[in-house]
Amino acid sequence: MKKRFPECEKIISDKRITRKENQSQIIIENPNQFKVCVVQVDGCAIKEGLRCDYLVIPDQQDIKRTLEIYIELKGSKILHAIEQLEATIKQLSDDPAKQKKVCIIISTRCPLATTEIQNFKRDFKKKYNATLEVKNINYTYFLS
Predict the structure, then answer these.
(1) What is the pTM of this model?
(2) Which helix H or strand E contains 81, and what residues bound it?
């Protein structure tokens, strides 16, 4: 990550990294205790306009590939969450088109597997080299 936000970043190597907002929660399982940079995007790294909640970047020396994990903890407005993720990628990603990314939306909405969401998943892969995950309320992501 070229852009740095020291006042918004925390380097942690906990086995379990949890972020929660209202009913939505993500747990990042980090069994090997890799160093991970957690960036508070909303209200810190990006203060105005569309933005997601967090950007998580595992240490490149620990993990053999560079990865950016964008996280939006959301209620039911999945389309808005997608816009927030796109805006954040454009502003913070080292390489919006090529850098490997995982974009995770934690939503309280059901059902999550609509045709529209499938189309967004395909678009994210094409435009941002990103895997888009839309998950319900509690989700666990495994770093390996």
Answers:
(1) 0.91
(2) helix 78-92
The residue type at 109: R
Distance CA 74, CA 70 (A): 13
Name which of 132, 139, 138 is nearest 78 in CA terms.
132
* Cα distance between residue 109 and residue 82, in whole Å: 14
Contacts of residues 37-41 at CB distance under 8 Å and 24 or more positions apart, as own/partner, are: 37/1, 37/9, 37/10, 37/11, 38/9, 38/10, 38/11, 38/12, 39/5, 39/8, 39/9, 39/92, 40/8, 40/9, 40/10, 41/8, 41/88, 41/92
Side-chain-side CA neighbours of residue 111 (13 Å): 6
Burial of 129 (0-12, 13-18, 19+ CB in 10 A): middle
The string of pLDDT tens digits covering residues 52-99 is 999 999 886 655 557 899 999 987 888 999 999 999 999 999 888 888
